[in-house]
Amino acid sequence: MADLLQKVAARRFPVAAGFAAFLDDASRGDRDAVRGKLAENPAMARGFDDTGDTALHRAAEIGDLEMMDDLIGAGAPNGSGSLPASPSVEGSLAN
User: Fold this and answer.
1) Nearest C-alpha neighbor of 52 from the set 2, 7, 15, 90
2) Is residue 67 within 8 Å of residue 26, measured between CB atoms?
3) Residues 6 or more apart in contact with residue 51 via CB below 8 angstroms
4) Which of helix, strand or coil describes residue 7?
5) Which residues, in sequence order, are CB contacts of 93 under 8 Å at separation 6+?
6) CA-CA distance, 3 to 68, in Å (whole number)?
7) Domain segments of the chain: what residues?
């Protein structure tokens, strides 16, 4: 049973080796480290932790537009066109 749960969790919350350090690099704004890790494993741009946090989230939190651009260029999901805006957002945009 534990093996089955581990397999399901690995599909649901994929974590590559070194991913936590990658997120930490993004949080600190260490562009060189982020670029280096993306060069080694571009899939890290699409990774997320167990709370759904991505490197793109971390770069956005610190306002690092250059890193955000690097991550999106490497394939980080940015939500554009993936979900409709909530009614409250749509309403505020109409005003």
Assistant:
1) 15
2) yes
3) none
4) helix
5) 85
6) 36
7) 15-77
C-alpha torsion angle, residues 19, 37, 57, 69 (rounded to 10) = -170
- pTM for the whole structure: 0.68
Structure tokens belonging to residue 31: 């562009």
Radius of gyration, alpha carbons of the chain: 16
Could you list the pLDDT tens digit for every one of the 95 residues in the chain? 766 655 555 555 555 678 999 999 999 999 999 999 999 999 999 988 888 889 999 999 999 999 999 999 999 988 764 444 444 434 434 44
* Euclidean distance between CA atoms 95 and 92, whole angstroms: 5
- The gap between the terminal CA atoms of the chain, to the nearest Å, is 54
What's domain 15-77's superfamily in CATH?
Ankyrin repeat-containing domain (1.25.40.20)
